[in-house]
Amino acid sequence: MPVRSMIMLCLVWIFLFWGAESAFAGKHYEIQKVSDSVYAAVALPDGKAASNAMFIVTGSHVILAGSHFVLDAVRELVAEIAKITPNPVREIILTHHHSGYNYIDVDLPANAEIITSWQTWLALKSEYRQVKNPVTYFEKGLTLQRENLSIVLSNTDFGHSKGDLVVYVPSEGVLFTSDLVFNKAIGYMGTGYMRDWVICLEFLESLSASIVIPGVGKVTDSEGITQFRMFMKDFLTEVLRHIEKGDSLAITKKDFRIPQYSNLPGYKTFFEVNIERAYGELKEK
């Protein structure tokens, strides 16, 4: 083949590849297929989505999982899903909700059923804006059998918040941790139950999932959970060191040092609220 023809062919392939990748990138999420039936929606830094989501495509409908759903991001997700499958979004697994945030998690597709933990349902019900969707909530665990897929939901009780859900698709080795795991980034920890959170991470590691969709950051594997657990232990150890010295919260903030993590995205953004929560949680016990 002449050199010119080879160059033109390469350019065509590059264009097609770039175009295909771009088709999955929106304003708020980048959509990534991670297994036969599961897609990750990774929140983009400049978008309105505060954390990642995932969706599962079955033969009849789509199951969306995540939290912090603002209207613009929901619209984009529904539009992106429609490019992949004509099947409608019929179930939404709401992994957690922070009380007092009335602009998230209520503007969901009207015909979709919300599935969540009882704690998250109570948090959602406390808002002055009420969801109009049908709701199913549960106490400890729930398995959804959708055709040949088993989708295992576990209520961790206490972790990043009250009633965090994790979503596991064992046949495809996919685990969605929501905000229980941040991958190479630091997210909001202001409602966390710190000791319980570390125990949750040990449980998630034991699943040995080959594909892990975190709440913040790129898709990873079980090693990503391990790395975040190590951060949590280092973070909490440093807080405890100051508490044991008798340092006040103000001094702890001033002298707190974990330099190996200080350049991670979100570290500075959430530094104040994360330290305050950890200090208060650990000082009480």
TrEMBL record:
One Pfam family of this chain: ODP
Domain Metallo-beta-lactamase as annotated: residue spans: 50-216
Domain of life of the organism encoding this protein: Bacteria
GO biological process: antibiotic catabolic process
InterPro entries referenced in this protein's UniProt entry, alphabetically: Metallo-B-lactamas, NDM-1-like, ODP_dom, RibonucZ/Hydroxyglut_hydro
Gene3D superfamilies (UniProt xref): Ribonuclease Z/Hydroxyacylglutathione hydrolase-like
Entry's family note: Belongs to the metallo-beta-lactamase superfamily. Class-B beta-lactamase family.
Protein name: MBL fold metallo-hydrolase
